[in-house]
Design brief:
With 91 residues, the chain is mostly helical. The protein is 74% helix and 0% strand. Helix 2 packs antiparallel against helix 3 (63-89). The longest helix has 34 residues, at 25-58. The radius of gyration is 22 Å and the shape is elongated.
Length: 91
Amino acid sequence: MACGIRTPIGIPLKSLREMPSKPDRSLIVAGKYLSLAFTLPASAFAGFLLGKFAAHWLHYSFLPAAGIFLGIISGLVQIFRELAREMKSGK
């Protein structure tokens, strides 16, 4: 038995002790801004899908466009909330 005790996912306990205690700060910042970059397209796509479903159900052809518009608005609101929270924390 070369590695000794293993974690439930199979990583040797010795290798976990050697890992740095804090993750790289640049990766955390990159993850935050990458999530912000995907927020607007994901919101617009979700609005389109909801509008498409509503248009099929209610038989109004303008609802996918209205869903995209509302999705973009909700995405922008979320982006501004995240940026305001980050500016408020001072990081």
